[in-house]
C-alpha cells in the first residue's frame, strides 16, 4: 500500500510539474507575441509620425529661408466669406476675427520685426476714398503692406489712390475693376515692382460665383528689411 501510495504521489507531482511547465511556456509565447505586437505598433506609429508632412508657418507649402517672413492670404469669396491675411503664423485679418469688410482690406507689418502694426478696411462701393488716401499717405517707409479685396474693391478708387498703391509695388491696381478679386503684398519705399500679386477679373462668362470671380490665394516669403 505504501508503495502504491508513493507511486501515486510521484505521478501527481510529475503531472503538476508538467502542467506548470506547459502553462509557463504558453504564457511566455503569449507574452512574446504581445510584446512583439506592442513593438510593431510602436514602430508603425513612429514611422507614421516621421512621414507626416511638416507644417510651416501660416500653412504655406515650404519653409521660408532665414531673414524672411512667411505669409499667406486670400481674397474674399463673393460677398459671403471675407478675406484672410496671415503673417508669421499670426492671422491678422479674417472673418473669424471680425475685422474685415467690403472693399479693400489692408494690414501693415513692421518690415524689420514682422509684427503687426495696423489693420483696416475701406468700403470702395458705398464709402469715401478720401480716408483711404489719407491712410495710404501715412504709411511709413519700410512697412510691409498686404491688401485683399472683398465684394467690390474698385468702384470708388480714383487715380490718386491707384497711384499710391502702385508706388507700393502693385502692377495690377491700374486695371482693378468692379468686383475683381485681388490680393497684393508690397512695401512702402519699395524700389521695384512686387512679385506678390494676384488678380482675377470679374467676367460673367468665367465667374465661379454668380456676379463674382473665384477666390484668389497667394503665399510666399517676404524679405526682412535690413538696416
Which H/E pattern describes the elements? HEEEEEHEHEEE
- The N- to C-terminal Cα distance equals 109 Å
What value does the average pLDDT take? 86
Total domains: 2
**Order of strands, widest sheet:** 5-4-6-7-8
Largest sheet: 5 strands, antiparallel
Helix content: 25-40%
* SSE-based structural type: alpha+beta
Summarize the structure.
With 227 residues, this protein is an alpha+beta fold. It has three helices and nine strands; from the N terminus they run αβββββαβαβββ.
Structure description:
- Pfam families: ILEI.
- The protein is of the alpha+beta class and 227 residues long.
- Helix content is 30%, strand content 25%.
- It folds into 2 domains: 1-48; 57-223, no CATH class.
- The chain has helices at 2-51, 129-138, 159-166, and strands spanning 68-74, 84-87, 90-93, 103-110, 116-122, 143-150, 181-187, 196-200, 217-223.
- A hairpin with a 5-residue loop joins strand 4 and strand 5 (116-122).
- The radius of gyration is 33 Å and the shape is globular.
- The N and C termini lie far apart (109 Å).
- Residues 24-33 have low confidence and may be disordered.
Question: What are the salient characteristics of this protein?
Answer:
227 residues, alpha+beta, 2 domains, 5-stranded antiparallel sheet, 4-stranded antiparallel sheet, 3 helices, 9 strands, 30% helix
How are the secondary structure elements laid out?
Elements: H1 2-51, E1 68-74, E2 84-87, E3 90-93, E4 103-110, E5 116-122, H2 129-138, E6 143-150, H3 159-166, E7 181-187, E8 196-200, E9 217-223
Antiparallel strand pairs: 1-2, 1-9, 2-3, 4-5, 4-6, 6-7, 7-8
Amino acid at each position: 500500500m505504501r508503495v502504491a501510495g508513493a507511486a501515486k504521489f510521484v505521478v501527481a507531482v510529475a503531472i503538476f510539474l508538467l502542467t506548470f511547465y506547459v502553462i509557463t511556456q504558453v504564457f511566455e509565447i503569449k507574452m512574446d507575441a504581445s510584446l512583439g505586437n506592442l513593438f510593431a505598433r510602436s514602430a508603425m506609429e513612429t514611422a507614421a509620425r516621421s512621414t507626416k508632412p511638416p507644417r510651416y508657418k501660416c500653412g504655406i507649402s515650404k519653409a521660408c529661408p532665414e531673414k524672411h517672413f512667411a505669409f499667406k492670404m486670400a481674397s474674399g469669396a463673393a460677398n459671403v466669406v471675407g478675406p484672410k491675411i496671415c503673417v508669421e503664423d499670426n492671422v491678422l485679418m479674417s472673418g473669424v476675427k471680425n475685422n474685415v469688410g467690403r472693399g479693400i482690406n489692408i494690414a501693415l507689418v513692421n518690415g524689420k520685426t514682422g509684427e503687426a502694426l495696423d489693420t483696416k478696411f475701406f468700403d470702395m462701393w458705398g464709402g469715401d476714398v478720401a480716408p483711404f488716401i489719407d491712410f495710404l499717405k501715412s504709411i511709413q517707409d519700410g512697412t510691409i503692406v498686404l491688401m485683399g479685396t472683398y465684394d467690390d474693391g474698385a468702384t470708388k478708387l480714383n487715380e490718386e489712390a491707384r497711384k499710391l498703391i502702385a508706388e507700393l509695388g502693385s502692377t495690377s491696381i491700374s486695371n482693378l475693376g468692379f468686383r475683381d478679386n485681388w490680393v497684393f503684398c508690397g512695401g512702402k519705399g519699395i524700389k521695384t515692382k512686387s512679385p506678390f500679386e494676384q488678380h482675377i477679373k470679374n467676367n460673367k462668362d468665367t465667374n465661379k460665383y454668380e456676379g463674382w470671380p473665384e477666390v484668389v490665394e497667394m503665399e510666399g516669403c517676404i524679405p526682412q528689411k535690413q538696416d
